[in-house]
Design goal:
The protein has 224 residues and is mostly helical. It has two domains: 51 residues, no CATH class; 164 residues. Helix 8 crosses helix 9, helix 9 runs antiparallel to helix 10 and helix 9 packs parallel to helix 11.
């Protein structure tokens, strides 16, 4: 009996993931954001205070959803026994493949929340946490790679590479949103080509030219 009671209490417990699930379901079922935190909380039999324990607003909740997508992606990746032996190139490929699998599992929500605006740039607010998480991850990859380089000339800029990774992710996100191929096979090809091209470029190109390439890619994709 005690065990059954404990399970029931856990099922009723308010968690960050549960609030995210409620919010995403509401958006998909109603085609809009909930009107107020008060009404949303009441509908799910929790207090406003319990909502605010995890998120300060619906805007904060939307940012939290993207952060959870990325966190779950890292958790899945790092469970692999081979992960620690991957090169940086392999880690980035695995990151993108896994991340877009996560997005595909939640495609209806992602398309709704991003296509609600004309440009992904207008959604920078809800993607802010994702941007920070991605840049931190890629900066750490470069930091680890630099520690293995004896020559300072061969060391890479964490700032440049982390910003380039963000530009690349936005490019791939827009590509995936427009992808109509079976099982989004075209996106997989785009991931492979863009990551391999980026690593080939940055490993053999001065940083100034690499940064110029990143700026060019950003302008081209964001102007559409």
């Amino acid at each position: 009996m005690a065990k059954t009671k404990q399970i029931k209490e856990q099922e009723k417990a308010v968690t960050q993931d549960r609030i995210i699930e409620w919010y995403m379901n509401y958006v998909l079922e109603n085609g809009k954001e909930p009107d107020t935190v008060y009404k949303f909380s009441k509908d799910h039999e929790i207090s406003e205070a319990e909502f605010y324990d995890f998120f300060g607003s619906f805007e904060g909740l939307k940012r939290g959803i993207w952060e959870r997508f990325f966190e779950h992606t890292l958790q899945v990746m790092q469970k692999s026994r081979e992960y620690d032996s991957f090169s940086n190139r392999e880690k980035m490929l695995t990151l993108y493949y896994t991340f877009f699998e996560m997005l595909t599992a939640n495609r209806s929500y992602v398309l709704f929340t991003l296509k609600h605006e004309d440009s992904i740039l207008k959604n920078a607010g809800q993607l802010k946490g994702l941007r920070r998480e991605l840049k931190n991850y890629t900066a750490e990859l470069i930091r680890e790679g630099n520690q293995e380089q004896r020559s300072g000339i061969l060391k890479r800029s964490e700032a440049v590479f982390s910003e380039a990774a963000w530009v690349q992710l936005v490019f791939l996100l827009k590509f995936w949103m427009d992808d109509n191929s079976p099982q989004f096979e075209s996106t997989d090809v785009a991931i492979e080509k863009s990551v391999n091209t980026a690593f080939d470029l940055f490993e053999n190109t001065p940083l100034e030219r690499a940064l110029d390439f990143g700026k060019f890619l950003w302008k081209e994709k964001m102007s559409r």
